Amino acid sequence: MPDGAVSLPVEDVGPEGAPPFQPDSLLGTVVAGRYRLSGHLASGGMAAVYVAEDTRERREVALKVLQPHLARSAEAVRRFLCEGAIARMIDHENVVRVLDHGSEGTCFIAMELLEGESLFDRLRRAGPLPPAETVSILVQVCNGLEAAHRQGVVHRDLKPENVFLHGRRGASPVVKIVDFGVAGGAHGEGGDTGLVVGTPEYLSPEQAYGKAGDARSDVYSVGVMAWRMLVGRAPFTADSADSMIRMQAREPVPSVTSARPDLAAHPELVGVVARACAKNPSRRPPTAAALGAELAGSLGRAVGPPTPMPRPSFQRPPGGPVAPPRTAAATATPGVDRGQRLRILAVLALVVGLGVASAALLLHERAPLPDAGPQAAPTR
Ligand SMILES: Nc1ncnc2c1ncn2[C@@H]1O[C@H](COP(=O)(O)OP(=O)(O)OP(=O)(O)O)[C@@H](O)[C@H]1O
Ligand SMILES: [Mg+2]
Q: Is the CB of 165 under 6 A from ligand 1?
């Protein structure tokens, strides 16, 4: 469980008074007889993420490992394995690709190794993002989310820490959603437990009331992320998780223009963010695809995903098994392409229309009018 997230109390199962988990202590160990941990990338409340060498495939992967003391909790193990199984079902360019997962001695999830930084680090480094960049990143988040929702999965913990900007610095990133640790069913199943699951700053009102939430709950979290990306901070500040949860449940999210009046120059974008952050789920864009399309059209010009970066150059053994290629359908961005096509068609129609009108005017001016007397001649 990431820092700041609220969920089932599996964290309580650690040995009392035990020293905190030292991620470096696992470096050099081999997990599942195959993955040699070579570098520590990040740690959360339940797991740590490492760079590992997949000795069988001779390539580098990212390996998420359940903290060893949590392996004694059946609930923690069940949830971790569930995360691996859920993430493996989703095959989309904008969702981190899970290659393997298991619990042989250590609970692990092997993933494609991403290069770059999380959106959280990006915001910490660069502050608020320009509207076009915000839209470009979030359109990709929506594309990945739509793929998850189509598989019946609600992420339930969308926040900048769980959005990775994959690619080398200076190049346009490919956005990857990570961490399906608290994911549930897209139609609300698997969770009206009365327990609040998620991270308070990004929690939908439904989640704040202890409901599982459906796809529109993720739409709300994307709205709050948009707010944070444009303004540089989340819409609500509170001195405790409890009061933050109460605010998410009841307080309307203020307009981004209250914190950034200059954003009034982008009224459509301001409107989309407000709709995504609506307290009532039925007032939000109904799907991630709908939100993505609204965002893509909100700046008055095509803001599609930036040029994809090449995948990291894993060394594959000659003739060795390779991961299945992604389908064109999975990487397509229908909302944006359709928007672009419509804009091009509209411009073409305008040009053709103007051409026809001026030709007609010219002909009209040059052609002698039947029965026209001198007084009926066109005047200039
Ligand atoms: N495939 C990956 N490649 C590179 N870095 C990754 C990858 N997956 C995750 N990370 C990094 O590790 C961080 C933590 O990952 P993740 O969110 O999955 O774990 P967590 O929040 O610790 O999870 P949990 O809630 O299970 O404790 C991410 O913010 C990201 O910076
Ligand atoms: Mg996380």
A: no
Alpha carbons 145 and 151: distance in angstroms, whole number: 10
46 CB less than 6 Å from ligand 1? Answer: yes
CATH code, domain with 223:
1.10.510.10
Parent domain of 67: 23-115+311-360
The amino acid at residue 46 is: M
Q: How far is the CA of 162 from the centre of ligand 2 (A)?
A: 5
Write out pLDDT tens, residues 172-195. Answer: 899 999 999 888 765 444 555 566
Rounded Cα–Cα distance for residues 144 and 231 (Å) = 24
Token pair 């990775």 is at which residue?
164
Q: Domain holding 30: CATH number?
A: 3.30.200.20
Tens of pLDDT, residues 6-51: 554 434 444 555 678 899 999 999 999 999 999 999 998 889 999 9
Q: 0.90 cut: is pTM over it?
A: no
What sign does the dihedral 310-49-82-103 (CA atoms) show? positive
- Report whether 172 contacts 307 (CB < 8 A): yes
For residue 48, which atom of ligand 1 is closest to its CA? 22
- Confirm or reject: Cβ of 82 under 6 Å from ligand 1: no
